[in-house]
Write a structure and sequence with these properties.
The chain has one domain. Helix content is about 50%, strand content about 0%.
């Protein structure tokens, strides 16, 4: 996630689909890097989580609940 400054709701939805599809195909998925403050705020505003997730791995755990 390092180097990705922001994301919109459609981007969040795509990440959720990516997580769902990788689980369905029993493939490992690694989301790495630091999550920007803007993305953390979008995750909160979208109602996905109520606190910041600073790393890609934390973001994956949060979004996995919607997959």
């Amino acid at each position: 996630m390092t180097g990705i400054p922001d994301i919109d709701v459609a981007g969040i939805q795509l990440l959720i689909v990516l997580i769902r599809e990788s689980a369905a195909k029993k493939k490992d998925l690694n989301i790495t890097g630091t999550v920007s403050e803007a993305i953390q705020n979008k995750i909160i505003l979208a109602g996905c989580w109520d606190k910041p997730c600073a790393t890609g791995e934390e973001l994956k755990i949060v979004l996995k609940a919607f997959a």
